TrEMBL record:
UniProt organism field: Kosakonia oryzae
Listed SUPFAM superfamilies: Mog1p/PsbP-like
InterPro entries in UniProt: DcrB/EagT6, Mog1/PsbP_a/b/a-sand
Protein name: DcrB-related protein
Pfam families recorded: DcrB
């Protein structure tokens, strides 16, 4: 697992001013059994992470077929408050599981940013994939101005 994120460890280090997304895939058998997406977007100055996460869950419920929120929990990522959503939905008659961690960051130059980390598994989010996801989230370190 460490080699998976070691290759991509720089993702969380810089938050760009514009919207950006990175997609990483990992598979032992050639299929995309686990994907990890990092996306960044602008946020409002008065946004709070729990309200942004609630809004995101409502948007997912509207846009995804057979959406079901399994759990939602507050946590910290590199000292920042975050919310983790775990949910499932159907895509092409296949159940897809996603675990999404949302973080709000303040940037003096670019303003407030939302960073979203999404792990996706078709069929099930196995213990192995859960461990991969948690190792990635726990390894995130944000660049802080000195």
């Amino acid at each position: 697992m460490s080699s998976f994120f070691d290759r991509y460890g720089c993702i969380a280090r810089h938050i760009k001013k514009d919207r950006a997304m990175n997609l990483l895939t990992h598979s032992n058998n050639g299929d995309s059994e686990f994907t990890f997406v990092v996306s960044r977007s602008s946020a409002q100055p008065d946004d709070k992470v729990h309200t942004v996460a609630a809004k995101k869950a409502r948007e997912l419920e509207i846009t995804l077929t057979d959406f079901h929120l399994e759990s939602s929990q507050m946590l910290e990522v590199d000292g920042y408050p975050a919310v983790e959503l775990f949910y499932q939905f159907k895509n092409d008659n296949r159940i897809i599981y996603q675990r999404q961690t949302l973080i709000l960051l303040d940037d003096a130059v670019a303003g407030k940013k939302m960073v979203s980390y999404v792990g996706t598994c078709p069929g099930e989010f196995s213990e192995y994939h859960q461990k991969q996801y948690q190792e990635i989230i726990q390894s995130i370190k944000f660049h802080r101005a000195k």
